[in-house]
Amino acid sequence: MKFPFVLVFAFILPLIRAQVPHWGPCPEPSVQPAFTLRQFMGRWFEIAKLPAQFEKGRCIETNFTMRTDKSIRVVSSEILKGELKKIEGTGVVEDMKNPAKLGISYSYVLPYSPYWILSTDYVNTALVYSCTDVLRLFHVDFAWILARTRSLPAATLEKARETFAKNNIDVSRMIPSRQQGCGKE
């Protein structure tokens, strides 16, 4: 029985190399109470993140817009090697009783990944968390501090980190995102 586990681990390891793996299942953080999806829509800049294999550039931002079918158009962009790269995905509210728990997919063949809004004031900042369990043996998580502007005061960033910590989310490896030299707002 060791062979299938080794095979699964060998397949997953390259996918999580830049991520932050932790033993055990995903934590269950509290999400934004009374979340209003329409107020969350719009342009968000990535201020800080846990390392992510799929984000390598600078000037990372995501724009959320409602579609007529109640799904969300998600357009993420970054500047990588001097070139603007964009990817479009779809977001959904997975449980209408808990609208701060979104699911986002950038492919028709991949399932929706969790995209949980832990906290937002809608006009300045948002704290987002995503986690995937691997056989309940370990989990890989992602965390982002987002803002409506390309920078935030240090005190705001510290408060955001405290919010993650209160929810048992280890952000000790969180790194600042590069939002300089991005061109026109």
Mean pLDDT, all residues: 87
Straight-line N-to-C gap: 55 Å
Shape: globular
* Element string (H = helix, E = strand): HEHEEEEEEEEHE
**Strands ordered across the widest β-sheet:** 2-3-4-5-6-7-8-9
CATH architecture tag: Beta Barrel
The H-level CATH homologous superfamily, spelled out, is Calycin beta-barrel core domain
Number of helices: 3
Which structural class matches the secondary elements?
alpha+beta
Instruction: Kindly provide the radius of gyration, computed on alpha-carbon positions and rounded to a whole number of angstroms.
Output: 17 Å
Classify the fold: give the CATH topology.
Lipocalin
Q: Supply the number of structural domains.
A: 1
The helix content, as a percent range, equals: 10-25%
Low-confidence stretches: 1-18
Strand content: 35-45%
Q: What is the strand tally?
A: 10
CATH structural class: Mainly Beta
Largest sheet composition: 8 strands, antiparallel, barrel
List the helices and strands and how they pair.
Elements: H1 2-16, E1 20-23, H2 37-40, E2 42-49, E3 58-66, E4 72-80, E5 83-93, E6 101-105, E7 113-120, E8 125-134, E9 138-147, H3 154-166, E10 175-176
Antiparallel strand pairs: 1-9, 2-3, 2-9, 2-10, 3-4, 4-5, 5-6, 6-7, 7-8, 8-9
In short:
This protein has three helices and ten strands, in the order H-E-H-E-E-E-E-E-E-E-E-H-E. It is an alpha+beta fold and 185 residues long.
